[in-house]
Amino acid sequence: MSRWFYITVAVSLLCMVGCGGYEAKEPSGGEATVGSAEPAQWAPIEVQAMNAAQMEQMDRCNIARDEYVDALMTELSVALGNGGPTEAIQVCSIRAPEIAADVSNRHALMIGRTSHKLRNPVNQAPEWAQSHIRGRVEDVAHFLGPDGMLGVLMPVRVQEPCLTCHGQADTMQSKLKANLDALYPNDQATGFREGDLRGWLWAEVSPSDSAS
């Protein structure tokens, strides 16, 4: 079974809980910030067209993605075992941004989550990914930006466990719904069915950065 299959399933399980705050932080030594470049300066690039430096950037994004998912899934599994979805919501709300910031700093890049139906409005996508998100693009996409920056957009699909927090609002457990309403009063992330496109993981990296 491929590593990407494992990551796809693991990331999909993140849908079970409330989305945390903004999950990216300017890496130490880096200068990239979300929205720092006009979208017109970014263009899609195929993996086959990448040079060696761009392939190395892509590999760093993939490694950061794996570490982020593994760390968050570990904490979520403990929370789900101890207190169920209501406790896991707190992990995703508080710890997910902290984990993403730690991974971002260690790999000198930026990583986060986004969706076309946001639970938390601060998880807006970077400008370079906006057109693909509006188009509901369901394949992994890569983007070349100014100064050799590379962006990677990785889709997340709804698995059956995701429906606990992202299914039909009128069938959700009352305590769970109350907690979500309190944390996310403008929640759009319900009404999904198994197999739907839930959102994307994204990563952005500059060739001038060096992972620590």
Can you tell me about this structure?
- By secondary structure, the protein is of the alpha+beta class.
- The protein has one domain (49-205).
- The chain is 40% helix and 13% strand.
- It has helices at 3-13, 52-83, 85-107, 130-134, 163-166, 174-183, and strands at 43-44, 110-114, 141-144, 150-157, 197-205.
- Helix 3 (85-107) crosses helix 6.
- The longest helix has 32 residues, at 52-83.
- The radius of gyration is 17 Å and the shape is globular.
Question: Summarize this, please?
Answer:
The protein is α+β, with helices and mostly antiparallel strands and 212 residues long. The protein contains six helices and five strands. The chain is globular.
Cα shape: globular
Number of domains: 1
- Tell me the number of strands: 5
Strand order of the largest sheet: 1-3-4-5-2
Rg computed from alpha carbons, rounded to a whole number of angstroms = 17 Å
Helix fraction bin: 40-55%
Q: Give me the number of helical elements.
A: 6
Termini separation = 30 Å
Low-confidence region ranges: 1-14, 21-36
Work out the strand percent: 5-15%
SSE sequence, one letter per element: HEHHEHEEHHE
Structure classification: alpha+beta
Major sheet, described briefly?
5 strands, antiparallel
Mean pLDDT: 75
Main attributes?
5-stranded antiparallel β-sheet, 40% helix, alpha+beta, 212 residues, globular, disordered N terminus
Give the helix/strand layout.
Elements: H1 3-13, E1 43-44, H2 52-83, H3 85-107, E2 110-114, H4 130-134, E3 141-144, E4 150-157, H5 163-166, H6 174-183, E5 197-205
Antiparallel strand pairs: 1-3, 2-5, 3-4, 4-5
Helix pairs in contact: 1-2, 2-3, 3-6
